[in-house]
Amino acid sequence: MRARVRKIFRNIRDPVDLVVLMNSVDPHIDLSFFYATGLTDGLFEGCAAWLHPDGSAEIMTSALEEAAAKKSGLPLHVFRHREEPARLLRKLLDGHRRIGINAAELTHDAFNRLRKYAPKSAKFVDVSEAVTQSRLVKDDEEVALIQKACDIASKSFEETLPAIRPGVQEAKIAAELVYHMQQNGATGPSFRTIVGSGPNGAEPHYTAGPRKIRKGDLIVIDFGSLYHMYCSDVTRTVVVGKASEEQRSMYNTVARAQKAALAKMKPGVKGKAVDAAARTLIDSTKYKGRFIHGLGHSVGLAVHDGGGLFTTSELVLRSNMVMTDEPGVYIPGFGGVRIEDDVLVTEAGARYMSSAPRELLEL
Question: What's the number of domains the chain is made of?
């Protein structure tokens, strides 16, 4: 993982002689800890990664996580009792004057502990931007893990389709989808599965509730699998029965917008230009103003991995970034349509990583 650590230091504008990635108690776990160490399992509460400018790294770990930590091949500092972390923090911080912290993911309590045990003359420097920038461009191993997560999610969606029928609760469909993902090798879902039927589909971040599917419903299904710490994020919209003219019009508009955005997703293009490609198309139709969120976001160790495609995004796309392409149209009281795929940006353009059917499925 030396290349990842070196990349973090290259992206730091205000040089430091050490970077500490400190975890607290779940869910306050810094996923960059896993990025820098290459570990893909374990929880590592109260543990930390210590990164050095030459690309080397060390792990401060509890005995509980020692077996998992050994898989990194990195030097370990193992604590077995409650008083030991303080001793280790003092030892590992000693002699360092400029200490980088990932403030975006560091709790106030953890920062106070670092400050308490650091040399009095030490200065803490926020390197959050450098960490985010490093994680945005995936290496080949990361791309392979995300691809596997996409493959699992896509296959599981197709296996779930027979369960989508009138009288079945949204929550039952969500449970069925998660079951198939784990049967197909996922560690679990990468976020709470969304199944928004009928009018519920007009809420982009609705989850899944007791409403029973009805004939004629549009259903927005947003799902993703977690595979060795890496995420996928896919959305498909289906209709139960034959689609009405209005439903088909909504779907075709969103599908065209997604393709327009995909054609823009090339290295050197700004995020706001990609968003505009989809938004301009939708706003040229009767659905103007019904696309109410940004076009997409980066995907990796987190579902929202630090970068976004939205109206003011200055993010410049680079090869090996993984972004979602997810335009949508939402009509309160009627329903919604969203089509979302994970996209790998390459020098040759962009390609979908998720493969679930994109045509409007009439079930």
Answer: 2
The helix (H) or strand (E) run that includes residue 10 is helix 2-10
Q: Are residues 319 and 221 part of one domain?
A: yes
Do 250 and 354 lie in a common domain?
yes
What is the spatial distance between Cα 325 and Cα 340, in angstroms, rounded to a whole number? 5
Of the candidates 334, 359, 299, the one whose C-alpha atom is nearest the C-alpha of residue 196 is 334
CB 287 within 8 A of CB 258: no
Q: Which residues contact 268 (CB under 8 A, 6 or more apart)?
A: 316, 317
Domain finish residue from 85, 102, 135: 135
Q: How far apart are CA 32 and CA 14, in angstroms?
A: 19
Determine contact, residues 136/318, Cβ cutoff 8 Å.
yes
Name the residue range of residue 272's domain.
Answer: 140-362
Whether 49 contacts 100, CB under 8 Å: no
Query: Are 352 and 275 part of one and the same domain?
Result: yes
Task: Give the Cα separation of 234 and 141 in Å (integer).
Answer: 21
Q: Note the pLDDT tens digit of each residue in 130-162.
A: 999 999 999 999 999 999 999 999 999 999 999
Measured distance between the N- and C-terminal CA atoms of the chain, rounded to whole angstroms: 46
Residue at a domain's end among 119, 135, 151: 135
Same domain (yes/no): 68, 204: no
Please write down the long-range contacts of 174-179, taking CB distance under 8 Å and 24 or more positions apart. Answer: 174/207, 174/208, 174/223, 177/221, 177/223, 178/223
Q: Tell the burial category of 346 from Cβ atoms under 10 Å away from its Cβ (0-12, 13-18, 19+).
A: middle
Cβ pair 44, 29 in contact under 8 A? yes
CATH code of the domain in which 112 resides? 3.40.350.10
Nearest Cα neighbor of 200 from 189, 187, 213 is: 213
CATH label of the domain that carries residue 151 = 3.90.230.10
What sign does the dihedral 294-205-34-229 (CA atoms) show?
negative
**Tens-digit pLDDT profile for residues 289-321:** 999 999 999 999 999 999 999 999 999 999 999
